[in-house]
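User: Thanks for the earlier help. One more: Ribulose bisphosphate carboxylase large chain. Can you show the sequence and predicted structure together?

Assistant: Of course, both are below.
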Amino acid sequence: GTWTTVWTDGLTSLDRYKGRCYHIERVFGEKDQYIAYVAYPLDLFEEGSVTNMFTSIVGNVFGFKALRALRLEDLRIPAAYTKTFQGPPHGIQVERDKLNKYGRPLLGCTIKPKLGLSAKNYGRAVYECLRGGLDFTKDDENVNSQPFMRWRDRFLFCAEAIYKSQAETGEIKGHYLNATAGTCEEMLRRAYFAKELGVPIIMHDYLTGGFTANTSLA
């Protein structure tokens, strides 16, 4: 279907929109392996969409049955396209400003065991780490809303741990509350709840939650 000539081809300029393989080189020391350099016109990509970019570059291509093996080795994005992405809401400097920590590395850890603790004991572990000198602690990516520890209970106990450790140390503390969920709507609900609690940090697993959800959260 993709390579079939149809009458609608004449309604646009295929030369303008088609990708071009401008260089092929053999992989050193390998038989029947090559590196192909392919360029695509910018008009093929929706502005500010990581999802569309990867769909166009690896989504369809990796699904072709004619290809026995394929690997994306490198990706170079023009500055003109990069500028269409809003990027993260802030960087390391703002994070330091929020925590009021300068001139040294920020110290943190992931709470262990990552699974099996009750929300109360989980919050206790967060408190002990923050009270002991860490700047922040973090949920593991696997920690979402399991039967032994529902997300709302975890958020509440972690917020209590943050505020208690701050009061006792006089320092700003944080905990990466994992807002990753089964739907984008639920993810945003958890993120807004964390915001209502006044905690400074949340996290989202973009590898499983998806680029679109991550962009919406940002």
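User: Great, one quick takeaway?

Assistant: Residues 72 and 85 are 22 Å apart (CA to CA).
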